[in-house]
# Entry
Amino acid sequence: MHDGLTKFLDWLKPKKPCLLLAHNAQGFDAKHLIKALTSCGQIDEFCQITVGFSDTLPAFREMFPDRKSFSQQALATDLLDATYNAHSALDDVKMLQTLSTSFISDTVLLKHSFTNSWVQRYIVYLSQKSKALRTLQPLICLKKISKSMAEKVSASGLTLEHLQLAYSRGGVDTISKVLIEKFDGRARVTSNKRVIRSICSYFQAD
# Structure
């Protein structure tokens, strides 16, 4: 992998500073590339060559809000009357280049761009969320909360230990305050009293 990334970086160098485009970059490509570069010790060089990424998926959603499908293959068929081998990385990249240069302005691309440092922070966040979610498995297994609610709890940074500490300090009232705490005008996790009571029942059983 190191050799492949070295060739990739050598190819990018004459073009720097680069903004890399990918369809669903924010959800997939960017984090996996940054992880690979980090594991191979090449992230610093990459950050010197590139300024970040732009996600063409939300860009096309903005440009064509009435469309139902935004898969790259569907966009190629409908907008360019073209087909390509989506299982070929090279063909995939070439088609995205044609689509983006034909239909997305630089302004829209920049609007949906994000920096390398944002991706690095996002990877850390996902790791922390995954660890927090694992601690909540007892609540899920006992059907105290749903998997989707556990996702919300872990996304807020809360673990089972945090909830247990809150309950030990003030019971239902403190658990409620932690879950209902406002963030950007919305509850940190939930204000649903049934969900809060269900979580508390887990600690009451102890």
